[in-house]
């Protein structure tokens, strides 16, 4: 395997600080004549190797941690429809749009979509575009807009004392849908019922993939990858689309960072053969030991951000070509909202109408279990 700057696991500030705490006392003990000084030197070397050592783009400590977490998850079944419990002081809601484009031009206007991260006084936590394509060429495209209550507390309180998070997110998503409709796009069904599971309930997590045994000697493998955000991203996305697979999931996530927009991309491939040690396409980083969590995060209704958010390079969104599904599917236009990560909600309420029963306000601390969402 050829190594480049992309394969090297560069240490962060935390690792560097911990290493200096061990190396500086060892350096001060030079020339290490007494047994105690030699023990200090040996401990510093071991700590430096453990914190700085890496293999195939992962630090040794990360490999050990993922191995232990993976063992703890077994034999727990993970899938898009698995149970979920999320606790935190921040409430988030996700509104999902299923979109189809004209047959002659189905390239999504990414800069326009990114503009709805902060519009009409509401700041979205992230906007994610997800594609699912099967081997027959049939594809589906979703746009998910996630809004955080903590980021919009003042704006929500200005609208109502009850902090109408879901209603505000629905209004923002409806305006995005109307804007896309004016450009010739069609917004169709969105929601948990229309999202097929990526990983089967019987899948077993291994270091390199999620494996489901179909018959003796034959299996079904789902491997998740993170894409590098750089000037080569358009070529990497094209290579993933051209990669032979029975099912391909791709996600592009745009979020607001401290100094500007950030971007993350991920994909998952379902194949009949086990994936190799090296990534199938340049620019991909395998989610070794983390495939279950990574595939769950690919769910369009997930409120969790993708791994690898990087400051958005100049003009990258303009150069990216993200094809959406075509107009062959004739389902009716509809919006659905989901609270938390994988929950489901009834259709949106139109202006002047009350929200459907079951749509709740999210305030303060959220603790929700989602037993049935994908």
TrEMBL record:
Cellular localisation: Cell membrane
Coiled coil (residue ranges): none
The protein, known as: ESX-3 secretion system protein EccE3
Pfam families for the chain: EccE
Organism, as annotated: Mycobacterium simulans
Keyword Transmembrane helix recorded: yes
GO cellular component terms listed in the entry, alphabetical order: plasma membrane
Keywords: Cell membrane, Membrane, Transmembrane, Transmembrane helix
Lineage top rank: taxon: Bacteria
Claim: Amino-acid biosynthesis is one of the keywords in the record: no
Family in the record: Belongs to the EccE family.
Sequence segments annotated as region (Disordered): 337-374
Gene encoding the protein: eccE3_3
């Amino acid at each position: 395997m050829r190594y480049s700057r992309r394969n090297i696991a560069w240490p962060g500030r935390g690792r560097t600080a911990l290493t200096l705490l061990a190396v500086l006392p060892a350096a001060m003990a030079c020339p290490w004549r007494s047994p105690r000084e030699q023990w200090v030197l040996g401990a510093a070397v071991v700590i430096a190797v453990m914190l700085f050592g890496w293999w195939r783009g992962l630090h040794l400590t990360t490999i050990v941690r993922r191995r232990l977490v993976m063992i703890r998850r077994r034999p727990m079944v993970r899938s898009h429809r698995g149970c979920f419990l999320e606790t935190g002081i921040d409430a988030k809601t996700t509104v999902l749009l299923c979109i189809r484009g004209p047959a002659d031009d189905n390239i999504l206007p990414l800069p326009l979509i990114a503009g709805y991260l902060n519009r009409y006084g509401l700041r979205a936590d992230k906007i994610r575009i997800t594609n699912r394509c099967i081997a027959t060429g049939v594809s589906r495209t979703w746009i998910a807009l996630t809004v955080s209550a903590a980021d919009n507390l003042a704006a929500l309180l200005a609208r109502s004392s009850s902090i109408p998070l879901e209603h505000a997110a629905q209004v923002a998503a409806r305006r995005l849908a109307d804007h896309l409709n004016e450009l010739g796009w069609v917004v169709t069904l969105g929601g948990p019922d229309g999202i097929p599971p990526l990983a089967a309930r019987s899948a077993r997590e291994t270091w390199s993939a999620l494996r489901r045994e179909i018959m003796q000697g034959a299996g079904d493998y789902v491997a998740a990858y993170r894409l590098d955000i750089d000037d080569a991203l358009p070529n990497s996305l094209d290579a993933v689309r051209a990669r032979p697979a029975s099912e391909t999931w791709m996600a592009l996530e745009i979020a607001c960072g401290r100094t500007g927009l950030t971007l993350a991309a991920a994909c998952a491939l379902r194949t009949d053969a086990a994936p190799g040690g090296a990534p199938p396409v340049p620019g991909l980083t395998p989610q070794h030991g983390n495939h279950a969590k990574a595939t769950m995060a690919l769910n369009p209704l997930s409120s969790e951000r993708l791994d690898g958010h990087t400051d958005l390079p100049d003009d990258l969104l303009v150069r990216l070509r993200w094809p959406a599904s075509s107009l062959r599917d004739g389902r009716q236009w509809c919006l659905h909202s989901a609270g938390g990560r994988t929950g489901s909600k009834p259709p949106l309420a139109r202006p002047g109408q009350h929200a459907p029963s079951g749509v709740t306000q999210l305030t303060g601390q959220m603790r929700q279990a989602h037993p049935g969402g994908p």
